[in-house]
Amino acid sequence: MSFLRSRILFGTETGTALLVARYIAVEALRRGLHVTIAPCDDMQLENESFDECTIIVCSTTGQGEFPATMRRTWERLRNVDCPRFAQLRFAIFGLGDATYPKFNYVAKLLHKRLEGLGGTPLLLRGLGDEQDRGRYETALRPWLSDLWAAMQVAAVDPRPSGEFAWWLCKVVSGNSSSTSADGPSHHADATAHMTLKSVRRLTTADHFQDVRHFDFVPTDAESELKVAGQLTAVGQCLAVYPVNDADAVQRMLTRFRLQKSWLVTVHPAACIDEGYFCVPRASCATFQQPNVSLFHRPVEAFELFLRYVAINGGVTRSFLETLSCFARRLTSDVADEVVERLLELASQEHFDEFDAYATKEHRSFLEVLEDFPDVPIPLDVAVSHMGMIHPRLYSLSSAPSERPLSITVALLSFRTPYRRERRGHCSGFLCDLPLGSVVDVAITEPKCSMTTAADAPVPSAFVLVGPGTGIAPVRGFVRHFLRCPPIHRQQVVVFTGHRSRDKDFLYDKEWTEATTEAATNGRVDVRVFSAFSRDPSAPSPRYVQHAMVLSPAAETVYDAIVNKGGLFYICGNSKQMPADVESALQSIIERYGECDAEDAAQYIKEMKLDGRFQTDTWST
After folding, report:
1. Strand, helix or coil at 231?
2. What integer is the mean pLDDT of 590-614?
3. How far is CA 402 from each of CA 227, 511, 588, rounded to the nearest angstrom?
4. d(CA 134, CA 348)
5. pLDDT tens per residue, range 380-417
6. Alpha helix (H) ranges present in 37-171?
7. Which of 214, 250, 203 minimizes the C-alpha distance to 430?
8. Which of 108, 309, 343, 469 is the most buried (most CB within 10 A)?
9. Residue 161 burial by Cβ neighbours in a 10 Å radius (0-12, 13-18, 19+)
């Protein structure tokens, strides 16, 4: 059958799935479909009409976990009482990285579950791979061609998708006035305002990595009430909303010939013709899209680029393709050369050119706009491509009952092949903050839990593994146990991993203090084991997985996990470390449980099903 409608749902952690979903949405609009685009958790899959197709774009986070905007959806789907979806016609495209053990695990699992619930897949799931030469686009474009064929729709709008604007910007006043609706809260999702109370560097000045400890306190009574109401569990994160550099903002204003005090409104386009600037003919395709906090609210142009628009985000091939569309309107002698260069950078055939120009140099939208200063791209289209600034999540390294709230931040700093200095957006923002600065934050739900189920008692033992800055939530766990001693004696086994005892042993003195305090109160038994990978004075163990299998740590882990039924928790880089730590745990169970590898692996599998094996990992 031929479809008239399409729901495009995205499950994203960092925003990439949203970008892909928006690209698919524009292509669907060009084919005359009525489109709704939304986070997975905002829609009910069973509410599908007979002429509608559901397209799901989803990423995989950590060790095969579902991304933030579709966790509730998956909880509903995995429930034994989940209704059947007899009318659901669906297609799934996953975003993953083949270097990880659970490559595109979410897309595979979701496809299988929806099919099991009676849904009908229109085609085989698509699996985008960051390791492909063209990243996820290598798999996306042929998959989309197959999808349109399966839906029996063809391209009916000749206009390039790049000329489409999701968000329409309008200058409503020549200068700011009382009509500005700029209030104290800049982001609808922000929970509170926090004031930076103190900062200290945790690594030595001569260490290659700058890691700092930040303390924040609620700025006002309302923020304190909000924080107290939402900060209820160990393992929660502080979502920090960074702002752009003021000099970069001024450069963006200059590029679009805007005065900093001019008031601008942003509202979503509601149909395909509203979103296009050149309309050769009428179109009836309409769409709905997620709300953004600044919609319909006058804001100064400077504030728009300072707090909302991701002007320093990494440029995409689709943006370069869009620039080429508007470069054709140039009348200068070099117009053809500009168009040719942009198309070359945007093409799949010349991906190495794009890789050298954009990916390896981490070139931003702002820098590309300055590289092609004469291309007359409208503000609306540029803002639509750049999108909004996303918050950065940092695990709280303080206990829920503590004030101030603490986070542990590693400054991302590096040089590109052309020796350009680059820094992480949020880590750089935080490290530049003077004391007393106010930031917008949100409190997120924890990725880990101290209990295996909502009504289960707190386990009597914990093994917490946190190499590098993964130690942040582990510190929060330990501080919580020391401040809120359990009724029954509890065992907490900690593994920390660093390069050098003298240069980057994060919170080194605190671990000694924690073991001493625990021995004094008698309710908590804290044991800390550390590994140093580049320390000649401590040749063994090198990594946390090595520290685990040595005596007496190995016996302690076995007693805590097997004899006491404890909870095992890993936090840190998601590349190889979690798999190595799991292998170390398996070897411990084999050795002290006197069982074979198959039985030990099965025990760990059951731990995961019971919620006793938890991970909180991220990619770098």
Report:
1. coil
2. 93
3. 11, 18, 35
4. 7
5. 999 988 988 888 999 999 999 899 999 999 999 999 99
6. 71-78, 105-116, 137-151
7. 214
8. 309
9. buried
Are 409 and 430 contacting, i.e. CB atoms less than 8 angstroms apart? yes
User: What's the pLDDT tens digit per position in 88-101?
Assistant: 899 999 999 887 77
Paired residues of 90 in beta bridges: 54, 121
Q: Tokens 């990439």 map to which residue?
A: 16
Q: Are 387 and 310 in contact (CB under 8 A)?
A: yes
User: Where in 12-110 does DSSP place strands (E)?
Assistant: 34-39, 52-59, 89-96
Q: Where are the beta strands (DSSP E) in 401-447?
A: 405-410, 413-415, 421-423, 438-443
Q: For residue 229, what are its two tokens?
A: 């109401």
Q: Which residues pair with 614 in a beta bridge?
A: 569
**Residue 456 corresponds to which tokens in the numbers above?**
């289960």
The C-alpha atoms of residue 112 and residue 498 are separated, in whole angstroms, by 40
Kindly report, residue by residue over 262-315, the tens digit of the pLDDT: 999 988 776 555 554 433 333 445 556 666 667 778 899 999 999 999 999 988
549 neighbors 515 (Cβ within 8 angstroms): no
Residue 190 pLDDT class (50, 70, 90 cuts):
low
5 φ, ψ (degrees, to nearest 5) = -130, 155
Q: How many helices (H) and strands (E) does the chain have?
A: 20, 23
Q: b vs e for 485-518, b when ≥16 Cβ sit within 10 Å of the residue's Cβ?
A: eeeeebbbbbbbbbbbeebbbbbeeebeebbebb
- Tokens read off for 44: 């009910």
**CA dist., res. 33 & res. 8, Å (int):** 11
**Residue 167: which H helix or E strand, with range?**
strand 167-173
- The answer on pLDDT for 248 being more than 70 is yes
CA proximity to 375, closest of 273, 256, 276, 254: 256
- Rounded Cα distance between 460 and 523, Å, is 11
For helices 317-327 and 379-386, what crossing angle results, to 10°? 170
Residue 4 is which amino acid? L
Map residue 379 onto helix, strand or coil: helix
Token output for 16: 């990439």
Could you give the CA distance from residue 614 to residue 620 in angstroms, rounded to a whole number? 20
Q: C-alpha angle with apex 436: 432 to 439, nearest 5 degrees?
A: 70
Chain-centre distance for alpha carbon 571: 16
| Rounded-to-integer distance, Cα 379 and Cα 198, Å | 39
Q: With helix as H, strand as E and coil as C, how does 498-549 read? A: ECCCCCCCCCHHHHHHHHHHHHHHCCEEEEEEEEECCCCCCCCCCCHHHHHH
CB of 96 closer than 8 Å to CB of 127: yes
Nearest to 55 by CA among 5, 106, 105, 108: 5
516: CB partners within 8 A, 6+ apart: none
Separation CA 371–CA 341 (nearest Å):
11
Cis previous bond, 404, omega within 30: yes
Cα 228 to Cα 220: distance, rounded to the nearest angstrom: 12
Nearest residue to 5 via CA among 294, 228, 286: 286
CA distances to 234, 486, 491, 516 from 523, rounded to whole Å, are 18, 7, 9, 12
